[in-house]
């Protein structure tokens, strides 16, 4: 009996490669009474698989896994993510400030990220080699050093898809507000310049009905925007990107070059991701190609736009108006020149800001993390 117990313990230690495995039993030698405790959650997946199959099946042992340590690097993350993670992991929470994160990151196995901060080599070094997975509560990840994650074998997932509808709604809001001169209308009310004497030509805007809509980046968000603008009886939807997409044909959108889109569109809507290729792609040259009656809308990332060039285009009436949910920097300083332009509608990066969407994003990020920790596929993996 003692020999068998010794063999079991030795086998488990050999499989796990750690000295943190303990066997507990009651006085009678009944294998169903045994509990195998893995007090180190960094064991190889093959060892875990053997324990969960052979031992659990053949000996009817119950398996207790040590809890992974997860850092939620933002104390405003929706509760659903906390509940999911706490059900299986040891969770610590900190504010989305660099120093706070650096203080709390050592020794963690996973991190839920939701911040404008750069997730870089310094943070990863501080975390330690046991870091296995990062889940971000966003679709974009231009502030995360993905190449460094690849080098270290750290899994990484984001939350595309779940925010498409909310962001597309904001795009429509900006299309309407910019084309119908919302800022000027509001100012007229506040400064008492709204009068019947203004006549029939006062604050005339641009029609969406019958317009040509150009979408730069026909991903999930771009497609959701296309579906919405079709309801306004637009004349045509153009799109551009790396290649023609079958989704474009399904929507009834036409694939064209960027130049053709800029020259022919009444509304140019940016929903492309920020990459080296798209950085500052909207600049003086781009705006000079657009119609003087056109409206520029950005719901992607502020860095896709050369902001001084946009200011100049708006001031010099090279384009009719702009609607921005994103800009550089964020938050925009209250004395920024864009805020003084009556033909520029600005909202504070509200694209995904609905209760339903933020909860769905938090849930997806948490599930990505849990799946990766269990050795299962992420719902939406990047790395």
Distinct helical segment count: 14
Helical proportion?
Answer: 25-40%
Please name the CATH topology of the largest domain: Rossmann fold
The number of domains is 3
Give the helices and strands as they follow along the chain.
Answer: HEEHEEHEHEHEHEHHEHEHEHEHEHEEH
Unreliable stretches (pLDDT < 50, length at least 5) are 13-33
CATH domain class of the largest domain: Alpha Beta
CATH architecture of the largest domain: 3-Layer(aba) Sandwich
**CATH superfamily membership of the largest domain:** NAD(P)-binding Rossmann-like Domain
Q: What strand order characterises the main sheet? A: 11-10-9-12-13-14-15
Inertia-based shape:
elongated
Quote the average pLDDT: 90
Query: CA-to-CA gap between the ends?
Result: 48 Å
Structural class based on helices, strands and sheet pairing: alpha/beta
Description of the structure:
With 383 residues, the chain is of the alpha/beta class. The protein has 3 domains: 64 residues; 112 residues, NAD(P)-binding Rossmann-like Domain (Rossmann fold), CATH 3.40.50.720; 177 residues, NAD(P)-binding Rossmann-like Domain (Rossmann fold, 3-Layer(aba) Sandwich), CATH 3.40.50. Helix content is 37%, strand content 16%. It is built from 14 helices and 15 strands. The strands form 3 sheets. It has a 7-stranded parallel β-sheet, with helices on both faces. Strand 13, helix 13 and strand 14 form a beta-alpha-beta unit. Helix 3 runs parallel beside helix 14 and helix 7 packs across helix 9. The longest helix has 19 residues. The relative contact order is 0.12. InterPro entries: D-isomer_2-hydroxyacid_DH, D-isomer_2_OHA_DH_cat_dom, D-isomer_DH_CS, D-isomer_DH_NAD-bd, NAD(P)-bd_dom_sf. This is Glyoxylate reductase/hydroxypyruvate reductase.
